[in-house]
Amino acid sequence: MRPHSPNPSTGSSSLSRRRVLAIAAGAAVTPVLASSLPAHASAAAAPTTASRALRFRDPSLPLAVRVEDLLSRLTLDEKIALLHQYQPAIPRLGVGRFKTGTEALHGVAWSTDFDDGGAVVTATSTVFPQSVGLASTWNPDLVRRVGEVVGVEARAFHSRRPELWGLQLWAPVVNLLRDPRWGRNEEGYSEDPHLTATIAIAYGHGIQGDDPDRLRAAPVLKHYLAYNNEIRRDTTSSMVPPRVKREYYEAAFRAALSADAATGVMSSYNLVNGRPASAHHDYDDVVRTWTERPLCNVTDAGGPNNLTGSQGYYATQAEADAAVLKCGLDSFTVDDTNAGPTVEAVRAALERGLLVESDVDKAVRNILSLRFRLGEFDPDGGPHSGIGEDVIDGPEHRAVNREAATQAVVLLKNADATLPLDAKRIRRAAVLGPLANTLYTDWYSGALPYRVTVLDGLSDRLGDAEVVHEEGADRIALRTADGRHVTATAEPGALRATVGSAAENTHFDVFDWGEGTVTLRAVAGGRYVSFGPDRTLVNDSEQPHSWFVQQQFSLVPHGDGHVLRYAGNETDDSWFGDRTYVVVGADGLLTVTAASAAEATVFTREVVRDGVQEARRAARDADVAVVVVGSMPFINGREDDDRTDLGLAPRQQELLEAVHGANPATVLVLNNSYPTTITWAQDHVPAIVWTTHAGAETGNAVADVLVGVANPSGRLPQTWYRSADDLPDILDYDLIKHRRTYQFFEGSPLYPFGHGLSYTSFAYGRPRVSAGVLRSDGEITVAVEVTNTGSRAGAEVVQLYTHQRRSRNPQPRSRLRGFRRVHLEPGETATVRIPLRAADLAHWDVTREKWVVESARHDILVGASAADIRGTSSVRVVGERIPPRDLHTERDAQNFDDYSGITLTDRSKTRGTSVQATEAGAWIRFRDVDLRRGVRGIEVRVANPAAASGRIEVRLDDPASGRVLGTVSVPSTGEKYTYTSVRADLDPARGRHDLVLVLDAPVILASLRLLR
């Protein structure tokens, strides 16, 4: 979600930075009703005397009774007003303001506030490791405790300003990390549905508390569905065939909601099979079937307006908002705090008959159900109302944070027992790199209450050893052709080119973040250069930050020097235009006003200090060199920005190679949010650890692991590839067809899913199954003995995978079915038991559109990663055999088995999915079709938006060389949503064959039926 501002790709004008800040602080809430609360009023206003006996305030009554009582007392205008994210007070009933949505992916985020005098203040919170780091712990018990802290702190912030910090928390993100180039990789948990679901359930239960009827806070799952790219995210359609949708993209949502670990879902920005997620009937038709509890579903920010804006799906906002409500979304996150446009559109939809009042009632009923479960209408505010601000960042919360940060660390390589370091033998250590002495937060982080960097942590652990530090950043000066130097002052201010300035004022440290992007930190004052007011450059930022990351530049070679190009963004392209290059004016002021390098000022880039060479010198005489490199979360991919490269930034790679060349005793600490193609490091550097941006305790956690105070136990929640060339296009969502993730990838990864080393070793016995035969409704237990064969205590993550040997359909190479963390002392043996249900082995049968457990033998694979299998067994599953496909009754065309040159598209603007040809020779294949009783014709339901007629060729077995049975002529239907039924004769055919339909573009096929 992009908070409180239009989706950047809609082209709408954005708010000023001051306006965004004010909205983030909960200011300027537009009242929809005539009355509203004071700025700091409680979310539950005191009821009037007449309302004290109202039944909805009686906590002894059933939830449904209380909801209906309150709903019945609301006017239509009041109910409509409750549909917006910022719900106004209703003083006549003692109902206070309510805000849906507080970001809380790894701690309560966006903690900017205003004091009573109107000054901006920052409220700190406990910031845990990024979500992908929480998943790398593979420890649901720990993650549940993290969730408890987040839920408690959400309550604490709510007690401070309920209109700013609502109790509906927009977390966790359960979008599967099928492509590591996704800019929001840090927000998700894993590429695997089971691991994602397990961690999400733990986090959600922790947030909610132990009583699902009396919630501490209310987690919402983001973002439904198949959302894993930022490029054109609001206009691209994720093509997900039924098997992939059911088995993969829906799986974590289904599991978390079935476990009552969340109270709703948030829609995503993308389209799914041609239909915008903001108007997809899955919310009612599918999502609500996964739980018996009421769900309060919300749109992502700006989603309703995209339906009429960038997506152009509806002509008017009344039609769009009606579709949002009718599909099962209850709360509109749109137009910042201004509910007016939503109220106006819903009223118009009611007047036009697009909605009836019961549609509004249904949504409001879901909203009120959530508010009741949060205790708002209980006389005492519910069991969690007494939580106050004093708990935030308390000692217990810091302890959980440190434990999480430590368990998130993954040891990727440890040749010749390089680690742990022997602190007593180290006299001099070099701690090097741009991330060695800084901590970065991300867009969904809160503010850190304190900071322990890797340098801090190691300096503490290494005692009397000399610890030297170099960032490895080049220090430069920029000189114009007439001899002036770009100058910054110690205080924030505009950059100017001047003559005779003090040397320190002309020096800038350059940090390389890859993809041609650098940041410039002024040595004078230590602040980063930003795109400032009136297109000037100013040194005003402690770190790169904010939605518009205005600290990004490129130093582009040009002629005999370099030009400076601004590489960030401001509002939108129509405002910013193509003026991205820096010019030095006659008054010396630096402004971003040139449209090309030819018009820009050319600078001589004078290297004052070579950061790589300084780091090399520091490492040369050290007993150990620790190089800390990685990403800046606001620059290296994030919301609205995918990565194109998974490698280290070039200058960071040079730093690592130079340090290793000077001192082979080099340890790489990789601090970033996504898998990285560090093939050179794996081949050369003896020891490598990885951690996400892990909050205030990052340095303590990394240091404890490096010196052996903690034995690393993190495991990778994603496959790490050797090259981005191992990946298909980021917009390819069919992981079966395109062989994505560890389940289907056929190459050799750099590090496999589940990988992680330890300072001790573990031996596995042979896995035993509790029964050799598993019935379709049964369950077995897989047991394996695990022994710590090393000299240190440690935790092993025992992972259970299965593989179905034979199937009608392509099956994964392996798939995670369960895991257990077990802590063992040296020499200790434990029996690890993991249950396995036959239902877990089901897959989606497209021939009959249902889940099926096939009769087959399944390999039982137990090991330390998807590629490190320590023992195998097998079980015979007694289920059913999928019969030959019967196409003599009408079948949806989307239920094909294979395809080429097609996409899936919306059959109508409400329901249904069709197949559309996108190129000449497109085809779909239906495997093993039963033609034994013969076939004489075919009937298809088709649309053809082209003016000319099209055709569908019917072949047996092969799209190119198979026997042609006949051709269907497809007349023009004028537009894509107008369908007609067409019949054609076919040559006789018998037996069991693959049936292939070859389609002309842009023919759209909804369904087919063979005729005898």
Automatic annotation (TrEMBL):
Residue ranges of every copy of the CBM6 domain listed in the record: 889-1011
Origin: domain of life: Bacteria
Keywords from the UniProt entry: Hydrolase, Signal
Protein name in the entry: Exo-alpha-(1->6)-L-arabinopyranosidase
Signal peptide extent: 1-41
UniProt keyword Ubl conjugation, yes or no: no
Family, per entry: Belongs to the glycosyl hydrolase 3 family.
GO molecular function per UniProt: alpha-L-arabinofuranosidase activity; beta-glucosidase activity; carbohydrate binding; xylan 1,4-beta-xylosidase activity
PROSITE patterns, alphabetized: CBM6, TAT
Cited function: Catalyzes the hydrolysis of a non-reducing terminal alpha-L-arabinopyranosidic linkage in ginsenoside Rb2 (alpha-L-arabinopyranosyl-(1->6)-alpha-D-glucopyranosyl) to release alpha-D-glucopyranosyl (Rd). It is not able to hydrolyze alpha-L-arabinofuranosyl-(1->6)-alpha-D-glucopyranosyl (Rc).
Gene Ontology BP annotations: arabinan catabolic process; xylan catabolic process
